[in-house]
Every structure is written in structure tokens, then in C-alpha cells.
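Duplicate of earlier report; Acyl-CoA dehydrogenase family protein input re-posted below.
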Amino acid sequence: MPVERLLPTPEAYDLIDLTRDVADKVLAPRVVEHERAETFPEGVFPALGAAGLLSLPYPEEFGGGNQPYEVYLQVLEELGARWAAVAVAVSVHGLSCFALNTYGTDEQKNKWLPEMLGGNTIGAYSLSEPQAGSDAAALACRAEAVDGGYRIRGSKAWITNGGKADFYTLFARTADTGSKGISCFLVPRDTEGLSFGKPEEKMGLHAIPTTAAHYDDAFVPAERRIGAEGQGLPIAFSALDSGRLGIAAVAVGLAQAALDEATAYAKERKAFGKRIVDHQGLGFVLADMAAAVDSARATYIDAARRKDAGRPYSRQASVAKLVATDAAMKVTTDAVQVLGGYGYTRDFPVERFMRDAKITQIFEGTNQIQRLVIARSLAG
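Output:
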């Protein structure tokens, strides 16, 4: 059964109906094929773009959908319930547009945002490095100021959409002043000197590549620096607050899909003369799964409403990311248990849900980092 949602406008209900229709027609029929073959789903993102689903939280004047985050995240959840890898890529695309939309000059936004939000391109976010994951202030990739721009040298890691994205929001060191020496750049894919490593062989999210990027004296014009020199980390962390909400929504979509599969199976499978859903022990497992999904959804919607209202939401974003992704890991694991031996096979999707759920506890800041953010907010 579709999730019964409380949305702010009639338009939002129409958008969710559109999303479900597109996801059922474009994503659901292809997910098994591409996840098993570990192949990029060519044509999927243009189809999502044509439906207006790649630019929902951004202003209409630049080609966006002008939707509140409360609605955008529920669209992501619907996508995540059909195909988590694609939903993550859509979330990362939104994250990669955040810096320019929020910190760019009017000239920069007018020049690049319409194409970035037009539905025919997709972006990537390039912050982490091999030695600098959670510790973003330890970045070593360097941008040296030269006539007309910067020369970029170094490597970045763990880039979702790496090698497939049309543009990269890059964070690189412009000064040896620790966390205050990092700047933000918008880098086109065809930049000379930019290359990508072999896609990582991952536990899940097989259809979307995750790669390293290598900058070998790559020139980036000065006009492509977003914000002031040294403003990179505040930009990055501000973007991550919104990105964490995207991952929370995708995680809830995964958990909801796992709950739906487990419930459907439990209604059909019989043991000891009755449906297994009617055995109290299993019924309670399903009840706990449902409670976890509903609670996780409530956390990301609360954070989104705060963001939409212009109120601080960093702590709430960390709570949502922590609660939703831990719930996704628990619910998908329980779904495998409900299906028993069948759940451990690829004949049923719950084993994929479980594998995909794990990474949600790691990227956009590990859940240990989310606990650190929450603890620091409590300490003042």
C-alpha cells in the first residue's frame, strides 16, 4: 500500500503521484538488471529530469521546482523505495547544486544554475580524500592561485556519480591555515587534467559509480570559485546539513520497501496451520519495523520543516540522519529474517535492501559524526 502522507498543498499530492508513476515505470523495471550487472542506468536521469524531479528544492527562476524541503524529501523517499542507488544519486545532485545556489553571485547563478537544474545534467560532490573523510579540515588537494584562476593538484575520494557527473563541487586547499584555508570550486567534467579512477567494488548501490578523482595541474578559472577564498568548509558543512536530510529520506524509503516486502510475505507464508503474520512473535517484529519507519520519517520531516521555515536545523538534520539510517539497517535486517532462507537469496529484494542500507550509516558523515554534532549542540 502507498504511504499515507500529510503534505502541505494539493500540488504536493500531485507531485507525489507523479513521482510514484515515474518511479514505477522508469526505475522499478530496471533496478534488478543494473544492480546485478553493476551497470550505469543510461537514460534514467534524463527521464527523471524531464519529469522535473532533479531540481525540486531550487528556485523557479533558475529552472528549479521551487518545492519546500518537506516535499522534496518525500519525493526522494519514494524514489529510494524503488531504487536506492538512483535516489542517492539524485540527492547528491541536489547537494552539488547547493553551494552555487546559496553562496554564488548573481552572475554565477545566472550563468550556470539553469543548465545544472535543467534536467539534462547531473552533479557530484567532491569533499572527501583518501586521508580525510570525517576530518574534512585535513584536506590536502591544493588549488594554487595563478593568472586567471587556479591550478588544482591532488586526489579526491568516494565521489558518488564520479566519472558520470557533468560538474563537480570541489573543495580544495588554497592556504595552509587549517580549516580556514579551504575554498569551493565548480569544476566541469571536461576540465583538462581531471581524470577518474576505477569504480569502487562496493557492497551495495552497484548501479551508481563511486570513484576517486585525480587533478593533475587542472586549470579552473577564477570565476568558478564559489564564495570567498577560505570559505570552503562553512559552505561544505552547510551543504551537508541538507545532504544528510536527503540520505535520511532515502534510508526511510529503503526501510519502507523492506517493511512492505516482509509484510506481504508474512501474509502469504503459512506455518503451523496459519499465516506467519498471525504468530505473535513475528507480528511483533513487523510492528517494531513499522514503528521504526514511522519514527524515522517523522525526524526528517521535522528537520525539513525547520529548514523551510528558515530556522536552525543542523542538530535536527544529524538526528534525522542518525535515526533514519540506523532504522534502515535494523528494518532491512529484520526483513531478511522474516523471509528466512528466501531473504538471503537474490530471488527477493530484501537482501539488496540490507546491503544498500549499510552505506547510509557511513556517507554524508558517519553516524558517529552525527552523534558528535548532536553532543556538541547539547554542550553549547
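The mean pLDDT is 97.

Merging into the original ticket.
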